[in-house]
Amino acid sequence: MGKNLDVILVGNPGTGKSTIAASLTNSSNFQSGVSFGGGHSKELNSYYDQNADIRYSDTPGLADVELAKIAAAAIEKAIQSTASKKRKLKLIFVITQEAGRVRPADLYTIDKITQAIQLTHGPVRNNGYSIIVNKFPKKIYESKDFQENGKEKFLEPFKKTGNHLRISTNNIHFNFKMSELDYKDNAKMQGKALEDIRGFILKYSGTLTGVKSCLPIQTGNLAKKLEEYKESVSEKFGGPKPNPGSKQSTAQTSNYTQKNYNTNFQSPGNNYGRQTNNNN
Q1: Which H or E run contains 221?
Q2: pLDDT above 80 for 240
Q3: Which of 32, 52, 159, 185 has the highest local Cβ count within 10 Å?
């Protein structure tokens, strides 16, 4: 596993995707740490592991309205490079929770990017991408209430399709918050947490084959779209609604209509560590 493979990590500012990329590669190609006014990743950064023939790329998400156009170009460039070199693709979205809920801006980023990818055998289908829920509080995850009720509710936006997310996934891994990484520039994960993430990505996450191209990712009028998206997600899954006229960069939409499809990736489909990967 791993030959002729691209791993593209996508995440909005503050999700910790650059720390994950730096840790996986043990390289300085990915800058991370506290960044006021936006994330560190403003362009495409990559690292090629020649021995394993795996190329890791770190791209920004679409939540930062000011940098959305640059972010979209970086994402398109990474996917087009995969297509031109005829490499397999593991698309990993790194997200965080907010008050126990999925951030609408993360859903928005996932939906727009997965819709833009074109495969030789059709569109990306359900379970064709994967998610790392990063910096999740361990105490909450291990609580009886979360395991019996909260986890299913938290994962619901990813498992049901609709206007908010037209391609669902069950390939989800929880990575616990590590206080030792807080407020440190270019910090790297170590130990079991890092190996769990590496195992999830290389062994259990979805793999796309036949990547043909990436359609332009539209970012026009993004602030308004994000607010509308956030309101729609809040109505469907709960959570605070945006203030009228505000320009927060968090959002998304809903209504479950899309049919389920068979998956078009190779994955063992069994659980791994703190991953939820139930291919129904």
Answers
A1: none
A2: no
A3: 32
